[in-house]
Design a protein that fits this description.
By secondary structure, the protein is mainly beta. The chain folds into 4 domains: 110 residues; 283 residues, no CATH class; 153 residues, no CATH class; 85 residues, Immunoglobulin-like (Sandwich), CATH 2.60.40. Strands 3, 4, 28, 29, 41, 42, 43 and 44 form an 8-stranded mixed β-sheet that branches.
Length: 803
């Protein structure tokens, strides 16, 4: 028997001697391969000992303690004093017999569950965007369209108001090839890099996300379109700048000390109940009558008049947005607050924020607090008394874009889980506090060790089953209303970007991965220069109505030449290059698609095979559908050192067979581990997919190397005569996750050339886990052969002539 120990907030709890405690760990269960794994235990009982009563705050009696069972608390599990799992513990309830508390019921959860708990019901608009600085003006919007460097914010060429056309010969007022009809900067909505959103989530919830994929161009070039509104009647997105607090720090007076407190403080106005018995009554006072009331008068005047742009005053009551008032420059806001009744128990604090369509100027604000009370005079008439306090404020309005009020209407948890599904990512806690590894499933498996448990398996209890397979696999985006997508659907009888596979001879059932995101089919104008493509957030003809889409995901490609006019609010230059958005990006000199299926790229006019399915899902599913695949259930009693080191990315070896762990259930008291294993037919354990067709012009190739559990990677020097450079330089030994960059120069030798680099992975005990190779094959640069007539023939290399 083994001795488990459970700690809640670093205090060991007492356990029943005969209580069975089991912890189940699972990953990508074949019944739902999109699930992110976690650890959980069956609910079990612990005695109501003095120690446990104290730790759990005498929960059975709500008069004695303040333990909040609605919140999971930090916990860990040890086996024979060896750390086993860390996570959260939840108190489920207590049992009372004969008037005495007998026991409590608790459950253990892994940290991934608590990550979702942190997000709660928060939306993207609740993230902290303070680190995302972007000054909103036409020049900066234009720069995001042409700048080739990494940018967190860009403005994709997607129309939400009119059907842009190209080179119609003056037949269309929406022809962006005409200098008078160029794309206007304020009709574009921004997009935020998914890698940046991950960073914002981490900073908002005080966690750390790690993993090489976070710096992968396939994530950095993936963007979320920041659209939550339609354009106004003037064809403008009508964005506002970041709000700033109004502070009343100039002047100010209180005319009568009978007010309990000065209501106008530095950053707030306080409305408190005023006891009329404290007032010195007027000489002709007989009695108070009617409802006494309080009032806030606000006067706002911008110091610089800027056309007819708007400014906004947001009024918060006790920290919650209560109302918003809108004004135009040159006008003032007066009496924006309703009359407030002086009621017993009133104690409210009002704060104020200001924002505008474009900042860079001062906003002057005078605030006046007035209290008025009516009374019956001794002569039978009606009189009143007033008390007033005033103060002034001068605040510089921000010119930075407000990402909070413009955020798409989506929960943080839905965006996060949807992105995990999109790239088939796993997310799991590391040993460091509040640190989570995020990486594709294939990369996660490549980080595990080979663990041979043959000698510990109970051979009497082995069960071998066939894999239950679906007869239909479906990978879908949310349906788009864009007229481009609708036209595609009408022609092809399917939604753009989706993938469906049918296997009529397999088990009945459908597995569906459906993303909460929408995808847009872009329009390539295919004119003089067919690199220019745009998108439309417009419904079908003849109305072409704008609509607010589901959250849209986009890919950014490399710079392309183009020719269209762009109105930046000051000038309307002809842009001759741009960074195109669509469904394609470039990584390791290859094109990748954000579609699940292998669609024809609207930008490149060729089929992109590196789809989401082929890149992130296929390897797992091909292994699952292999006719040799078996589901093997075994039991084993593992030594403590193996049990506490074993993780779900490890490959299990039983005799000469290799398996992946589907789930493992550990009985902490008996030490018996029940495994459900899946045959592993993946040929390579590493993640080095050889780029065998690098073009002659060369480029950068990025690999991800992740040692595991105290092990290391050794990358040797090239075996052939080297023609590459790398960061870090090879040979190199790596003990932490690294993204080595291999730079391949232009091949002007006239012949194809190859490169082989050996990669050796070592376990923590120094044994070799596996050896793999990086293969590079580069084409030769094309040459021209001069002809007698002055012409030329283009050659692929010195041996082959291309006519």
């Amino acid at each position: 028997m083994r001795k488990p120990s459970i700690f809640i907030d670093n205090r060991r709890i007492d356990l029943f001697q005969d209580e069975k405690i089991s912890v189940k760990s699972s990953v990508q269960d074949i019944a739902d391969i999109s699930k992110v794994f976690t650890d959980f235990s069956q609910t079990f009982s612990i005695p109501a000992s003095d120690e446990n009563n104290d730790i759990l705050g005498f929960y059975y009696n709500n008069d004695l303690g303040e333990f909040n069972a609605n919140i999971r608390v930090a916990a860990r599990i040890e086996i024979d004093n060896t750390p086993f799992r860390e996570g959260k513990m939840q108190l489920e309830g207590s049992t009372i017999k004969d008037g005495q508390v007998e026991s409590y019921k608790i459950s253990f959860f892994g940290d991934v569950v608590t990550l979702k708990d942190r997000f709660s019901q928060d939306k993207l608009s609740d993230l902290d965007f303070s680190s995302l600085s972007f000054t909103y003006n036409g020049a900066n919007v234009q720069n995001t369209i042409t700048d080739t460097s990494y940018l967190d914010v860009r403005f994709p060429l997607i129309s939400s108001s009119r059907v842009w056309q190209y080179n119609t010969g003056g037949l269309s007022a929406d022809d962006i090839y005409n200098s008078n009809n160029g794309i206007e900067y304020n009709e574009l909505f921004p997009a935020v890099s998914d890698a940046k959103i991950m960073e914002l989530i981490a900073s908002t919830y005080n966690v750390t996300f790690s993993g090489g994929f976070l710096s992968d161009d396939r994530l950095k070039n993936s963007f979320t379109w920041w659209k939550n509104r339609n354009l106004d009647t003037n064809g403008s997105a009508n964005f506002t700048t970041k709000s700033v607090d109004l502070t009343f720090n100039s002047g100010g007076s209180v005319l009568n000390p009978n007010l309990v407190n000065n209501p106008v403080a530095f950053d707030a106005v306080t409305i408190e109940y005023i006891d009329m018995n404290l007032f010195s009554v007027p000489f002709d006072w007989s009695s108070w009558i009617g409802q006494e009331w309080q009032q806030i008068d606000i006067y706002v005047s911008p110091s610089i008049f800027i056309g007819t742009n708007y400014y906004y005053l947001d009024i918060y009551k006790n920290g919650v947005l209560n109302q918003t008032y809108e004004g135009t420059f040159g006008s003032s806001l007066y009496n924006v607050m309703p009359f407030l009744i002086n009621s017993i128990g009133t104690n409210d604090v009002y704060t104020f924020k200001a924002r505008s369509a474009n900042g860079g100027y001062n906003l002057n604000c005078d605030i006046k607090y007035t209290f008025r009370a009516n009374y019956l005079t001794t002569s039978g008439g009606i009189g009143f008394v007033t008390e007033t306090a005033t103060a002034s404020s001068v605040v510089a309005l921000s010119s930075e874009f407000d990402f909070n009020t413009t955020a798409p209407d989506m929960k943080v948890a839905d965006w996060f889980s949807g992105t995990l599904k999109e790239f088939n990512l796993t997310c799991y806690p590391l040993s460091k506090l509040d640190t989570f590894q995020v990486e594709p499933l294939n990369d996660w498996y490549s980080g595990g060790e080979h663990v041979d448990i043959t000698e510990f398996v109970d051979t009497k209890t082995i069960k071998v089953d066939r894999a239950k397979l679906y007869n239909e696999l479906s990978f879908e985006f949310s349906k788009s209303k864009s007229f481009m997508n609708e036209a595609f659907s009408d022609i092809h009888n399917r939604e753009y970007g989706n993938l469906k596979e049918v296997f009529p001879d397999y088990d009945v059932g459908k597995y569906s991965v459906k993303l909460p995101f929408e995808t847009l089919l872009f329009n390539n104008f295919d004119d003089i220069n067919n690199n220019l493509q745009v998108g439309y957030s417009l419904t079908t003809a003849p109305d072409y109505k704008p609509y607010i889409p589901k959250v849209v995901k986009l890919y950014l490609h490399t710079s392309k030449s183009c020719s269209f006019f762009f109105d930046n609010g000051t000038t309307a230059p002809n842009l001759t290059s741009y960074m195109p958005f669509g469904q394609d990006t470039e990584f390791n000199t290859k094109n990748y698609s954000m579609n699940f299926g292998s669609e024809v790229s609207s930008l490149l006019n060729t089929t992109i095979e590196n789809s989401l399915y082929n890149t992130y899902y296929q390897q797992y599913l091909v292994n699952l559908f292999n006719p040799k695949t078996r589901i093997v259930t075994v039991q084993a009693i593992l030594p403590i050192d193996i049990l506490t080191r074993l993780t779900l990315d490890d490959a299990i070896i039983i005799r000469d067979k290799k398996y992946r762990i589907n789930d493992m259930t550990t009985d902490l008291t008996t030490g018996i581990v029940k495994f459900v294993l899946i045959s592993d037919w993946v040929k390579t354990k590493a993640r080095f997919q050889p780029p065998i067709d690098i073009e002659s012009g060369g480029g950068d190739v990025v690999y991800n190397v992740k040692p595991t559990k105290g092990g290391k990677f050794e990358i040797s020097a090239p075996i052939e005569t080297p023609f590459i450079t790398s960061i870090p330089s090879f040979p190199v030994t790596l003990t932490e996750e690294t993204n080595p960059v291999i730079t391949i120069p232009t091949n002007n030798t006239g012949v194809k050339r190859t490169q082989t680099i050996q990669v050796t992975k070592y376990r923590s005990n120094g044994e070799v886990d596996y050896i793999d190779y990086i293969y590079i094959e580069q084409k030769a640069e094309s040459f021209k052969l001069l002809l007698e007539n002055g012409g030329s023939l283009l050659t692929e290399n010195l041996d082959k002539i291309l006519l």
